[in-house]
């Protein structure tokens, strides 16, 4: 039965063999034509046959970092036991034998905390770069080279905001060093190679591609990470991410992993971000970042419509430091910064990075949009100090009647002494008090809360609920879709909120 069936199938297929051959020939002809007519871009690189030559070329500049921190152990009080308990002598002997008992309390004994990470040499004289979190507050740091040489290191400078540290060792001879490349030229899909010290195993080489650029993982104010699928694990921190020319285009810093091991999502500080910080640490032992003196927030579509910006762009100024450089330059709350020192500000995340990388004392042009009009301001940058606190923001003044009204899902009242006490509002805070928020309103979705104060509507001060409703009616008559509110909390910190008025 099987033989008959096979014979029937072969016979039935025989009449189609010649047409199929012709079809196949046509198909391959088409494929060949397409391949010739559409060559790969000349800038694209094929996958390397091996990474061995590249790894051999740069491995000598990659180091392991061993950091030890000695801390005083807390004294431990022995447990209080009932008098005459039969176990009293046993407990006392146990704690004394472990060095934790001596009379009523155990003596303090130093203990050592160790960490392992990676780094790389950028100067043959002995300058090494790693992550700040690798060394932490260590008081004993060693750099271990690929040939087993171990040298003591001193800290030249470190920066927690970008998580970088610069170390110095004193070698007997010049060291193998690597240089930074142009990380801005990277494209998703480009080949990269990582070398480091995962899990203390020593120089390990992994390879992958650039998965994405400009990642914000909310680890600091200047997040702009390269994402890669090259395997990065614990211990790779501080190690280099190389391009195919053997240049460092990133410093491996973090991973996203539910298991603690690599799942193909690693993050590196771009060379374009790291290099200026490293230069400052080498020259001054600390960072010297530019400071504008504004508090900003992002511009969403609703806010852009309310400000007549067209597309959402720029950084919206939500506060101006009274002692900062922006104040005398004429920047105001409600300005949208769209260009800084000739560089476009696409969203609010761009501005802190651009400002921080600009030299202190430099006079720069700042392009802002104010009430639909573009204008230019000149600002001489100050220096950003760690731990510096924003000064109090000026608030609009004005008397407020006690009339209560509703609009946009908000119940509003004029400022009174009773409301000021109820919501613990600052004495100099002026505006319209929100007493209730409809839970089904867009105001609730934007996290506006009772006890907050409406300071402005569409960049104009309001002092009564009637002011608010009138300005909303005016916006509706103009065909506007949203109203931009400047809302303050009880402490006087303000933010812009765009609410739909349709």
Describe this structure in words.
By secondary structure, this protein is of the alpha+beta class. The chain folds into 4 domains: 61-79 and 86-168, Beta Barrel (Thrombin, subunit H); 183-284, Beta Barrel (Thrombin, subunit H), CATH 2.40.10; 290-383, Roll (Pdz3 Domain); 404-500, Roll (Pdz3 Domain). Helix content is 22%, strand content 32%. The protein has helices at 2-13, 17-37, 52-58, 88-97, 132-135, 271-284, 301-306, 326-329, 350-356, 417-422, 442-445, 465-477; strands at 62-72, 110-123, 127-130, 140-144, 150-159, 164-168, 191-196, 204-215, 225-228, 240-242, 248-255, 266-270, 290-291, 294-298, 315-320, 336-340, 343-344, 363-370, 373-380, 382-383, 404-407, 410-414, 432-437, 453-457, 460-461, 482-488, 494-500. Strands 21, 22, 23, 24, 25, 26 and 27 form a 7-stranded antiparallel beta sheet that branches. A 6-stranded antiparallel β-barrel has the order 1-2-3-6-5-4. Strand 2 (110-123) and strand 3 form a beta hairpin. The longest helix has 21 residues, at 17-37. The radius of gyration is 32 Å and the shape is elongated. The protein starts with a helix and ends with a strand.
């Amino acid at each position: 039965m099987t033989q008959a069936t096979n014979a029937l199938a072969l016979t039935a297929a025989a009449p189609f063999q010649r047409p199929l051959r012709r079809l196949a020939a046509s198909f391959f002809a088409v494929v060949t034509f397409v391949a010739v007519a559409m060559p790969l871009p000349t800038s694209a690189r094929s996958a390397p046959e091996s990474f061995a030559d590249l790894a051999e070329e740069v491995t000598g500049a990659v180091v392991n970092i061993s950091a030890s921190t000695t801390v005083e152990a807390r004294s431990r009080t022995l447990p209080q036991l009932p008098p005459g308990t039969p176990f009293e002598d046993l407990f006392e002997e146990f704690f004394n034998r472990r060095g934790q008992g001596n009379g009523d309390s155990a003596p303090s004994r130093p203990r050592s905390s160790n960490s392992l990470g990676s780094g790389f040499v950028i100067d043959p004289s002995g300058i090494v770069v790693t992550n700040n979190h690798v060394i932490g507050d260590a008081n004993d740091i060693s750099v271990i080279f690929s040939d087993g040489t171990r040298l003591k290191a001193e800290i030249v400078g470190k920066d927690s905001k970008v998580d970088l540290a610069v170390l110095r060792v004193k070698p007997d001879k010049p060291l193998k060093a690597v240089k930074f490349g142009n990380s801005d030229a990277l494209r998703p899909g480009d080949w990269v190679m990582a070398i480091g010290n995962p899990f203390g195993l020593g120089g390990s080489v992994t390879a992958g591609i650039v998965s994405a650029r400009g990642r914000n993982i909310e680890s600091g104010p200047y997040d702009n990470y390269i994402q890669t699928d090259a395997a990065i694990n614990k211990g790779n921190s501080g190690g280099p991410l190389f391009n195919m020319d053997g240049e460092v285009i990133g410093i491996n810093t973090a991973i996203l992993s539910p298991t603690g091991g690599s799942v193909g999502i690693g993050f590196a500080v771009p060379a374009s971000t790291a290099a200026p910080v490293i230069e400052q640490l080498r020259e001054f032992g600390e960072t010297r970042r530019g400071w504008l003196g504004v508090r900003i927030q992002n511009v969403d579509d609703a806010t852009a419509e309310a400000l007549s910006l067209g597309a959402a762009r720029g950084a919206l100024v939500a506060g101006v430091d009274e002692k900062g450089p922006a104040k005398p330059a004429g920047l105001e709350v409600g300005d949208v910064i769209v260009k800084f020192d000739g560089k476009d500000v696409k969203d609010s995340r761009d501005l802190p990075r651009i400002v921080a990388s600009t030299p202190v004392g430099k006079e720069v042009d700042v392009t802002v949009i104010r009430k639909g009009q573009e204008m230019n301001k000149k600002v001489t940058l100050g220096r950003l100090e760690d731990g510096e606190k924003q000064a109090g923001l000026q608030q609009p003044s004005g008397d407020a009647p006690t009339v209560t009204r509703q609009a946009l899902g908000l119940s509003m009242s004029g400022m009174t002494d009773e409301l000021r006490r109820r919501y613990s509002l600052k004495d100099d805070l002026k505006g319209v008090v929100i007493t209730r928020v409809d839970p089904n309103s867009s105001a609730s979705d934007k996290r506006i809360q009772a006890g907050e104060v409406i300071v402005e509507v569409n960049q104009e001060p309001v002092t009564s609920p009637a002011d608010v409703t009138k300005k909303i009616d005016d916006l509706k008559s103009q065909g506007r879709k949203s109203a931009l509110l400047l809302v303050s909390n009880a402490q006087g910190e303000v933010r812009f909120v765009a609410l739909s008025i349709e």
